[in-house]
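User: Protein folding is very new to me. Would you mind checking the protein record under this note? It all follows right here:
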Amino acid sequence: MMRAKLKGISSPDVELRTYWPEDEACFGFLVELQIGPENEKGADLFQTMVCTPDWIKAKYSDRKAVWGRHMLIVFEYDLAEIESAISRYVESCTADDWHGLALKLSRFGGWEFEDYQP
């Protein structure tokens, strides 16, 4: 059985190690997760939006309903808890092969090869 491992986390929107939101109850930023099989080299990229309910409400105030795919919804800014929540989810995923793992992970984050057709 193959298990997923979080091998890196970054953001194209903010510098994670120094970022602090102006409003801890209303923020959102994209994270890029490098995830691969445990005990193997290499990783694929998955993207997830980290945001608060207030940010969703402000961002989509003109709509009556929105889909929440590829989002980690948090209630306050705590980078250690965000990273821990992501890592716990990733490392809970197992499958017989990488493709099966990637399909499970793509429920949480947009997989770089999700719609790839060779």
Remarks:
- The chain has one domain: 2-111.
